[in-house]
Amino acid sequence: MNVIFVTFSFYPKGPKPTKLFSFIFGNMCKIVFESIIFLFVIHPFDVGDRCEIDGVQMVVEEMNILTTVFLRFDNQKVVYPNSLLWTKSIGNYYRSPDMGDGIEFSIHITTPAEKIMLIKQRITSYIEGKKDHWYPAPMIVFKDMESLNSVRIAVWPTHRMNHQDMGEKWARRSQLVEEIAKICRELDIEYRLYPLDINVRTLPTPTGLPVSDRLPPHWAAPGSSSK
Question: What residue ranges are annotated as transmembrane (predicted)?
């Protein structure tokens, strides 16, 4: 990071500076002062840190006095004025402790309690078997019930790392999701919807085809009226 200090010296030999010049110079000094305080006092990140600003994850690529250059997930460079970053909430993944994760899936509401206990035991056993990836004793809870026909289960494990290396985080999570899907298949856990009750009151009259005049007893023939 290159730091450049600029010193201005004024020697009044003529008329006083105009109000416009005073405003521009004063505003510039304010921006430079805020940027220096932001970089050297607040110092929310370093080059290479993965940060989250306005819900977007970016990696710090370059830090200057007035601006900071970030690299987005698609390798697009984004330049932020430090005076603007001063006013924003900045999340820093690199400086965070080991972080948690969450996986949710639904099962049918009639799934036997014994199978649900087996699901929890096997998920916990898998996570505790990956000691290099996860902390033991993940939290597994019934999170919600949906439409009276399914139950949503949430698994909240904790990584043995923060999310600075996002690729590794997603790789570990993907392996856990695959294991949960495998457990559900082996235990014959399924998600199905209730059958829909469809009532047909009128049908279009087909053209060019023979038409049957047989109707259910409680249906009225087209064009007929009750007396």
Answer: 20-42
Alpha-carbon span 158 to 153, nearest angstrom: 17
Strands in the chain per DSSP E: 50-53, 56-63, 67-72, 77-81, 90-92, 103-108, 139-146, 150-156
Phi, psi of 183 (to 5 degrees): -60, -45
Domains of the chain by range and CATH?
19-92 (2.30.30.60), 103-186 (3.30.70.100)
Over the stretch 14-60, which tens digit does the pLDDT of each residue have?
445 555 556 566 778 888 888 899 999 999 999 999 999 999 999 99
Q: What angle (nearest 5°) sits at the alpha carbon of residue 121, between those of residues 120 and 127?
A: 90
Order of strands, edge to edge, in the sheet holding 150-156? 103-108, 150-156, 139-146
DSSP for 22-35, written as a single string? HHHHHHHHHHHHHH
Distance from C-alpha of 214 to C-alpha of 224, rounded to nearest angstrom: 14
Average pLDDT, the chain: 85
DSSP 115: H
CA end-to-end span of the chain, whole Å?
Answer: 93
One-letter amino acid for residue 112 of the chain: P
